[in-house]
Each structure stands twice: as structure tokens, then as C-alpha cells.
Amino acid sequence: VSRQLKEEIRRGFARLEDPLAGLLAMLESSSDWKGKGHSLGYCITTELQLWIKAHPAVPQSGTKLKKLQARVLGMLSQCPANLLDPLISIYQLHTADRNYLLEHVSHLYLQGNYKEAAILSIKLKLQPDQDVEKMCTPLLLQDKANLVEEYVAEYPELQRKLLQTLDTWCEPSFNIRDIIRPYQGLSKYNPEKFNRRVLSKLIFRLLERFNVDSALCPNVINQRHLRTLNYLFYKRFVEKTMTEENWADHIQSTVGENRWLQAHLVQSLLRHCDARGAARWAQHCQVPPEMLPQAVAEELQKLHIQDRVEEVTKADNYEASKKKDYYQLPIPRENIHFLQTWEETLQCWEKVLQAGQVVGVDMEWKPSFGMVGKPRVALLQLALKDEVFLLDLPRLLEQAEAEGEKEKLPHFIQMLYSDAAITKLGYGMSGDLSSLAATCSALKDTEKQMLGVVDLLAVDKQVDGLSPEHSHEERGVRQPEKGLSLLVQHVLGKPLDKTEQLSNWEKRPLREEQILYAASDAYCLLEIYERLCKDPESFGLGSDLTESLVGKQSKKPRAKKQLNKQEAPSPSGQEFQGPRTEPSRPPAPISPQEFSVVCDNMLQGLGRYLRCLGVDVRLLDNEDDHRKAAEIARQEGRVILTSGLPYQTLRSQVGEGRCFSVNCSQKAKEQALQVLKHFNVQVSPGDIFSRCQ
Fold it and tell me: Which 3 state secondary structure label does DSSP give 30?
């Protein structure tokens, strides 16, 4: 709106004896304001709202205002959304008689203007005095669930009443047509959008959004558990991809002591097992004997130790066949560490947070089977070349909170993901990080800050011949491999054994099969990556694996730029390099005399070696704080050479490329060669021993 028009509008208000009545007269005699967008009526109304703020004496009260309020209410149902708030404010409708407002909204409702009645109720905060079921039912029939959410958003009591009503509609015996009958002539009613499945989804959405206890909705919870029960029977008895122990864990946690679900469990057992098998499982799942059919109850009496012997024999045969058909961990069992204390975890971080380290990262959580909320990570797996660490995340977080240091674990995880000098390998990292954020809110921005990551999910679209159909032909009767298992099969020759994938990862202690599965899931990433780095062309990848894997997986220019800062050193004995992009142009060659460094106190051997080659070196003393290196670097224009955790702190305190992380596991000579190569320092015979030793 032009400044000239605004000034003209304000001059007009100043000349009016009663600006509020004047605005109403203008709006009533014109239809321009009824359209969407910024009409002239809208401009005049918003200008009056601003003008009133500058002239506090203008607003009226008493009988005159009540008459104006009555006229405005008549207009509000025809108002575009952007005019509602200004008119309510100008005519002080929040101060109007509440019964009068409720009566007006009721009149709108009876005329079939359900949406307008709800919007006006929300604007005037009338919901506590209305019947939530009556107001929301026609909106749900018209597929306006978002408006229903908004209607109850600020009123916990109404949220509970609405959820209880919706859950009642989901009772198996309830006839959903009873709801529809009073609204036969309803416009925009779509029967396909109003059924138990849609209602169930809505209930779960509302439970999550408003953080309401799901016990309030027993019907939808039972139905969801029943679907889980049927799915578990399909996985175990039809698809046959779930181990007995794993299946039993989930059946018990799903059914619990719920009589209705126990009855369905017995029916399903009889469909898939004989009476003896049904009796054994009924006993295992603690189904009360009085709920069992006579034939199953009789078998329950006959059960004896022989059943267990048969199962153990079957299990032994199964283990032998697994070794033949599936990927096996190449490291000994004693190199898999299950960590539940901070002392153990700190030792793990010391090994993981080393510059040049390559880490396979995976996470496990209890399957939600469609229940409310995002899954919470129960196990974090970190695989190095010679060992795998399994971190009991719930236990560690609980322990840290009890000690008043709940930021301890998130701090380490953020350091790992944000360090460009450590290569993190994952498969579908975005989903893992989303669950990690749901587990610990301090980690919600990890994905935005991560550097040096390679998501092998990106390889699925690039590796030649990678398709489930190809896998199915090879595997014969078994289900076709997919996802990471298919990639492992294609690159390493055998698929992953996924029978433990849907385990209850929150149950402690973990079974041995779960521990081996979790370790394999993380470790196989290292082996895939090593194979792809050695021979990318044979898998249809470009010879520049950096471009194939890192370039395409990162959409964040900032992260990419950071990766280019420094060529990360590779760990001692590591056969494959991390996908580090070399700087596009190496730095100009310099002599050792022109190269000035300050060495952190854990790199005194490297410092002495570089001084032998003629480099200008300052060494920190053993008692010096690491931060002194940054102070010296800034004052004297030196490059910092450091390693491990101090690198995270120091690199942010100096300019780009002025802090370099050295691999501590290498000897001084190897470290020196790495530094000289990175900074393009050219050593001549005349430089050697040119400085005082």
C-alpha cells in the first residue's frame, strides 16, 4: 500500500466523528473486502487498528459499542481470515457478553456453517463452554482434522474428551454410521475419508502431538497391538525370518496381561501350531490356563523336559547353517565390548576420537510396530578395524543424569560427528540421527553439524547390478535380500543375517545373537568401504571414490567446504583411506625456514624431528594447558600441530587451515612426513640440522 494512500486513510479517520461506526458503514456498503488477499477494505481496517493504538481515547464502551459489536458479529462469518483478528481487536469482541457470543456461534452452527463456527470459537476462546464432540464431528466428516487439532490445541481437558470420543468410535461393536446419520446433507462430506483406519491414524497423531497418555484410548491401542500380533505370526510362521527367542520377546511385550489380546494369541497359536505347540507357547507367554481350549489345556499337563532338548538340537543345526550362508564377523568375540559404565565408555572414546580413524556407526532401537512417538536408540555401535563397542545408551544417559552430567554423552557424540578428520561410515544416517535426537534432545542439530561422513545408502543407487530380483534368484527359497544386506551380499559375497533385526533392543541382558548381529551391522560397513576403495571400477563406481561417495551424499555446501580444509591422515596399518577430498590446488611450496609451528605437549617427538629438518618449532611443556598453543599461534603466526580431543577446541581458535591433527599412533618420522606433505614443505640437504638442536 502506498504511503500516500495510508496518509489519506488516516486523515479520513481524523475527520470522522465516530471512526468505528464509519468503518462498519464502509464495509457494509461494499463487497470488495469479502475477497481473498489485501483488498482496499483490508487496508482501511488494518490502518484503523494502527490509528487506534496511536489515539487511545477513540475506543468506545457501553451501549454504543454493544450495538457496533452486534453488527460486526453479523459480518464475521463472511470475513476472509485476514480480517478476523483486526475486527475482533478494533471492536473489542473479547469483552462482549459471553452468552451473546456463544448464541451467535450456535446460530452459525445450526445454519450448517460448521467451519465458520469453529474458527470464530477459536478466535474468541469459547471452546471451554462448548460441546467438543458436537463442534468437531461435522469438521471430521468434512475432512478438516487440522481445524479440529487447532480447536483443542490450548485445552488439555478438551484434548482428552476428544480422544476418548474418537476411541469410542473405534470400538469393534460401534456402528460408525450412527455418527453420520444426523449430517446426511453435509456438503464436502467424503465417506472414504471417514473410517476406523483414518480415525486410528488421527488418534495416534493427537496422542503424540499433545503428549497424552495412550491408556486413554484402549480400543485403538488394542487394535494396533492385534495388528502387531498378526505381523509377528507372519514373520515367524510364514516368512520364517524371526528366531524363536526374538519372537517370544515381542509376543510377551505385546500381549502382556491383556485378556483380550491373550484370547487372540491362543486363536493364532491354534491356526499356526498343533495343540502341543500351542500349549508350549501358551505356557511360555503365561496365558492363564482357564483361557485355553480343552485340547490345549490337556497338552499343557503333558509338557516335559524333552521339548527343551529338541529345541536345543534344532538351534545347534540352525547356527551351523547360518555360518555357511551369512556374513560372519572377522574379529574374535572377545573384541566385542558391551559398555554400560562411564569408565568403560571413556576408554572407547579415546580410541574412536583419533584423527584419521575410520568408524562404522550403527544404532538399534525396539521396533515400535506403529505405536506413538519416534523410536529411542537403545544401542549405539561403533566399529573400528580390530574391535567393536556396543554402548548401552539408556543406561549411560541415566547414569550421567544421576551424576548431574547429562551433557557428557551428547558432547562426545557431537565431537565424533563434527570431526572432519574422522571418517564416519553409516547406512541411512538420516534415520539414525532422527532417532538419536528423539533419545537425547541435545543432539537435535547433529545432522546439520556433521563432517567427514559417508552414507553407504548412497552407493545403492550407484553400484552396478544391485537389485533385490538378482538376489532372489541366487537365494532360492529365502526372502530376497534388500537394503544393507543386499549391499553386503553384492560387495562381500554373503548377505547379513537379519533374523535379529526386529529384536527387543531395550531388554537386558541382550542375547548373544543380538550382540553378534549388532556388531556385524556396524563392522560390515568397514569391510564394504575397504573393498569399494580398493576396486571402485569393478562395482561401477568412478575411480575417484571421494566424488562417488562424499560428493553426492552431502547437500550441505558448508560441510563439503570443511572437508576440503585438510587431508586427514590415515590410521597406522589401515589399508584404506578415508574419502578425503584433496584441496583443488596444493599450497605453494615453502622451505622449512619459512614454516613455523607450535607443537602440543603430546607431540614433542614430532617437534624435535621437524627441528632437525630446519623447521621453526616451539614445544609446549608437559604442564602447559593445550590452549596455550592457540595463544602462541595467534601471537607469532604459527601453525598448531595437535591430536585427539584438543584438536576440536584449538581449531576453532585460529584461522582456517592453521590447526592440523596428527595421528598419535604413528612414529615421529611418519608424522613429520605427513605434516611436510600437507603443507608442501620442500626440505633440501642444507636444511638438515640447520637449526640449534
Answer: coil
Instruction: List the one residue out of 322, 319, 300 whose CA is nearest residue 311.
Output: 319
- Classify residue 685 by its DSSP letter: G
Q: Retrieve residue 500's grid coordinates.
A: 535379529
User: What digits encode the pLDDT tens for the residues 319-375?
Assistant: 555 567 899 999 999 999 999 999 999 999 999 999 889 999 999 999 887 666 678
Q: What pTM did the predictor assign?
A: 0.61
Identify the three-state secondary structure at position 201.
helix
Q: Fold identical between 335-465+482-549 and 592-679?
A: no
- 353, 644 in Cβ contact below 8 A? yes
Predicted local confidence at residue 572, as pLDDT: 32
Rg (CA), the chain: 35
User: From CA 576, how far away is CA 316, in angstroms rounded?
Assistant: 37
Domain ranges of the chain: 220-303, 335-465+482-549, 592-679
CA–CA separation, 400 and 341 (whole Å): 9
What is the maximal distance between C-alpha atoms in the chain? Answer: 102
Smallest CA-to-CA distance from 398 within 435, 344, 440 is with 440
d(CA 40, CA 114): 28
Q: Cell triple for residue 318?
A: 540352525
Report the side by side order of strands in the sheet with 596-599: 616-619, 596-599, 639-642, 659-661
pLDDT of res. 39:
78
In 10 A of CB 605, how many CB atoms? 14
Q: Which burial class, exposed, middle or buried, applies to 654 when counting CB atoms under 10 A from its CB (0-12, 13-18, 19+)?
A: middle
| Per-residue confidence (pLDDT) for residue 44, from 0 to 100 | 87
* Regions of the chain with pLDDT less than 50: 305-306, 308-316, 318, 467-478, 548, 551-584
- CA 291 to chain CA centroid, nearest Å: 42
Pick the CATH number of 592-679 from 3.50.4, 1.10.10, 1.20.1440, 3.40.50: 3.40.50
Q: What does the pLDDT look like over 616-629, one tens digit per residue?
A: 999 998 888 888 89
CATH architecture of 335-465+482-549: 2-Layer Sandwich (3.30)
Please state, in angstroms and rounded to a whole number, the distance separating the CA atoms of residues 122 and 100: 16
Cβ density class 76-85: b for 16+ within 10 Å, e for less: bbebeeebbe
| 272 membership: H or E segment, kind and range | helix 259-272
